[in-house]
Amino acid sequence: MATRTASQLTGATPVLTAHAIHRAFGSAVVLAGVDLTIARGEVVALLGSSGSGKSTLLRVLAGLDGDASGETVVHGTAAVVFQEHRLLPWKRVAANVGLGLSGPDTAGRIDRALREVGLAERHRAWPAELSGGQAQRVAVARALVREPDLLLLDEPFGALDALTRLRMQVLLRRLRAEHGFAALLVTHDVEEALLLADRILLLDEGHIAVELPVDLGPTRTPDDPGFGALRRHLLDRLGVPTT
Ligand SMILES: Nc1ncnc2c1ncn2[C@@H]1O[C@H](COP(=O)(O)OP(=O)(O)OP(=O)(O)O)[C@@H](O)[C@H]1O
């Protein structure tokens, strides 16, 4: 049975429950019994120092790691977006978005997903013809087309330049408002976490060491009162000097 968390105690329906997640590589224990609940529609950012196990946890939750122990239940459909777009170079954009998709109106669904990320006109392009930001938007469309209840995002904008990254953050915020999906966002970037998340978790020494609700408005910016204090608090917990 999964451990109860604040979101369950307030009555929100979970989209993901994970209990006692444990993963070691040889004698190195990376996840030492992680409990995690994500409420329906909630965006949770997962921060932690390099090597703290963020990607490992995401892979376990996505069902991509058969060697972990513990229990994960996703109540609905999950889709994953990685730091690399992972598009198949021999398939056009539309075919990449529709990979494995079946059922009625597949072409219409692909078209709508591409329109939502602003790339409807590139549906016949090859992945090699896209910029890094465009390819990552196709990867987001490929996740969206599955109408996920939960997006698992592993540093999805980590390989992009600063400006494209900001644009992608705005896009994700808009898509979330329109679709209401929940998300687990693995990121190195404290500002990105504060801009996008309802709750921030900090992974340290195999455990969730900090759980921080982000009580800022949905259209928050770094200039908002409260943003700076949360930023300093998180950087302090990450051991990064701010003065
Ligand atoms: N397949 C593997 N074999 C051996 N060790 C691994 C493997 N995958 C991850 N690790 C180790 O597990 C630890 C956590 O790695 P992970 O990639 O999850 O960290 P992370 O927090 O996502 O790091 P970063 O922020 O740098 O991406 C690291 O010490 C890493 O070397």
TrEMBL record:
<keyword id="KW-1003">Cell membrane</keyword>
<dbReference type="InterPro" id="IPR003439">
    <property type="entry name" value="ABC_transporter-like_ATP-bd"/>
</dbReference>
<feature type="domain" description="ABC transporter">
    <location>
        <begin position="16"/>
        <end position="230"/>
    </location>
</feature>
<keyword id="KW-0067">ATP-binding</keyword>
<keyword id="KW-1278">Translocase</keyword>
<keyword id="KW-0472">Membrane</keyword>
<keyword id="KW-0813">Transport</keyword>
<dbReference type="InterPro" id="IPR050166">
    <property type="entry name" value="ABC_transporter_ATP-bind"/>
</dbReference>
<keyword id="KW-0547">Nucleotide-binding</keyword>
<dbReference type="InterPro" id="IPR003593">
    <property type="entry name" value="AAA+_ATPase"/>
</dbReference>
<dbReference type="InterPro" id="IPR027417">
    <property type="entry name" value="P-loop_NTPase"/>
</dbReference>
<dbReference type="Pfam" id="PF00005">
    <property type="entry name" value="ABC_tran"/>
</dbReference>
<protein>
    <submittedName>
        <fullName>Putative aliphatic sulfonates import ATP-binding protein SsuB</fullName>
    </submittedName>
</protein>
<dbReference type="InterPro" id="IPR017871">
    <property type="entry name" value="ABC_transporter-like_CS"/>
</dbReference>
<dbReference type="GO" id="GO:0016887">
    <property type="term" value="F:ATP hydrolysis activity"/>
</dbReference>
<dbReference type="GO" id="GO:0005524">
    <property type="term" value="F:ATP binding"/>
</dbReference>
